[in-house]
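User: My instructor asked us to take a sequence, write out its structure as tokens, and then describe one feature of it. I'm not sure where to start. Here is the sequence I was given:
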Amino acid sequence: MKFPHHLPAISIVGVGHHLPATVQDNASLCQTLDVTPEWIVEKTGIEQRHIAAPDDTAWGYAVAAARDALAMANVAPEQLGLIVCCTFSGDYQFPPLSAKVQQQLGASHAQIFDLQANCSGFVAGLTVASDRLRVDPSVGYAL
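Assistant: Let's start with the prediction itself. The structure tokens for your sequence are:
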């Protein structure tokens, strides 16, 4: 289905990210595995990974990244009409991760939901947000 040309354009106006401080390279990982660092790079392209600390939370990472994105976009949390959290590893099943993000940001007017799509979560979430904004411009901003 094609969208009519009179629908508004959707733009990414801010981005954010937050990563754990601890970094593990392939050489240290391979000390406990029966593979080489080169094998990992060849099969996955991964050279290092960030390791969350025991007290880190998915909502903590999401909120930190969200604050960066909102600051870049010059958008206040109260202006958000939609929050979509895409993860397969939230802190708990209920309440959803999006509810904690909404609460921590103070985005009381935002509709919320979690989307579990594993590695493709970003693409799926971006598509959902874009489609929602296209059909209902009153949403205003999506996170």
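For the description part of your assignment, you could build on this observation: Strands lie at 22-25, 48-51, 80-86, 111-115, 141-142. Try explaining in your own words what that tells you about the chain.
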